Structure formats: C-alpha cells, structure tokens
C-alpha cells in the first residue's frame, strides 16, 4: 500500500523553487501552479499532498505530525531546535546568518551590546560562546532599521544578496553560519511511512546532485 505523504512547503519564492525540485524528483502536482489562493494541493497519482505554510511555521507542522515532511531553512532549525529528523540539504535558498552594523561601528566590550534580531536563540548562542554580555531586542522584520535609528548597536539577520544591508548603509561584521533549505521529517512518520519518505528523499537527493552538476 502506498501512503499519501503530507508535505509542508514554505510559501514564497523559496517554496516555488522547492516545489520544482519535488516535481523534478517525480512528485508533480500541476494544480499547485495555478493562480489561486488555495493552500492545499493533492496529487493522488504521485502519492503526495502539498500545503503552503509560512516558512517559519514549516517545522511546527512537521514536528507535530500535521505534515510528514517539509522544507525548512537551517536558520529556523537552529533557532527553534524542533524535534524532527533532518534528511537532506537541498542546497538551495542559500544565505548566511550574519552580524551587521554601521560601517563605523566599534565594539566597546565594557558596555552591554544591544542586538536586534528575529533569531534570539542564535544570537544568544553566538555571543554566549564569546562570553559577551548582550541585550537582545526581539523584532519581527525590517531588522536593518534598528541600528540606523539607534535602537540597537548591531543586528543578527539573514544576508542573501547583501542588497538590503548595502541600501541601508550597513556592513557585515561577522558571519555566524551558512544557511540553506533542508528536507525534514516527522519522527513518527519516518518510522511508519518510511518507504515512501525514503523514496522522496532519495529522488530529491538525485535532483540535488543533477543541479550541482549543472552549476
Ligand atoms: C530577509 C532578511 C533581510 C533580507 C536579506 O528579510 O531579514 O532583511 O531578507 O536579503 P538580501 O541580502 O538579499 O537583501 P525578508 O525579506 O525575509 O523580510 P523581513 O524584513 O520580514 O525579515
């Protein structure tokens, strides 16, 4: 018997790229490309049901078993440490988690450093390893504004092309970790739907290898 595998995809540009990888791996669901506000798409023939969720929520769906597998950025996995299996690096959605600040920023170790970020655990871990005393200012977006307005000394945020930093006159001060999209699995599903999940994972691994050969 073939299981239907529930797949949580990150809504947005990365999700579209990732869906194309699933399609290339042999799990197509053409209706997903139709312009609609629908969020759930089933392809019985391919044995998959896709749903679009907010990128930062993918890991929650997978951890709690609402999705069997999903695709989440390494940033989310490091920040929230969900209890899931990480099956594969999809080598896409590549970016870096960085410390950034104004060009003339000079750290004064005698003062608590004000750090604005969406990623408080990653920031706390990074500065904790340096025994640096920090005050985390948790924001949910437009982080780059914080040092410009004096809300923080630095930011910890994702840098992809570097355009946002450049256009706001900020520079990378340090790279914390490289990020890419990862295929993750619910632990119970991995046990009970193992053949189907392994099949998808193996096929995606081949797609990743083909992509790398073409680069
Ligand atoms: C992310 C990140 C940066 C930007 C980096 O923001 O927080 O602001 O992308 O990309 P770049 O280096 O290519 O300019 P996102 O678009 O997710 O919006 P946000 O403001 O909600 O974080």
Provide an overview of this structure.
- The protein has 8 helices and 11 strands.
- It has about 220 residues and is α/β, with parallel strands linked by helices.
- The strands form 2 sheets. The protein has a 6-stranded mixed beta sheet with strand order 2-3-1-4-11-5.
- The chain starts with a strand and ends with a helix.
- The mean pLDDT is about 95.
- The structure holds 1-O-pyrophosphono-5-O-phosphono-alpha-D-ribofuranose (PRP).
- The site of 1-O-pyrophosphono-5-O-phosphono-alpha-D-ribofuranose (PRP) has 12 residues, from β9 and α6.
Q: Please state how the strands of the largest beta sheet are arranged side by side.
A: 2-3-1-4-11-5
Order of helices and strands: EHEEHEHEEEHEHEHEEHH
**CA-CA gap between termini:** 38 Å
Number of strands: 11
Radius of gyration: 19 Å
Q: What structural class do the secondary elements suggest?
A: alpha/beta
Please estimate the helix content.
25-40%
What is the count of helical runs? 8
Label this structure with key terms.
single chain, 215 residues, alpha/beta, 5-stranded mixed β-sheet, 8 helices, 30% strand, elongated, binds 1-O-pyrophosphono-5-O-phosphono-alpha-D-ribofuranose
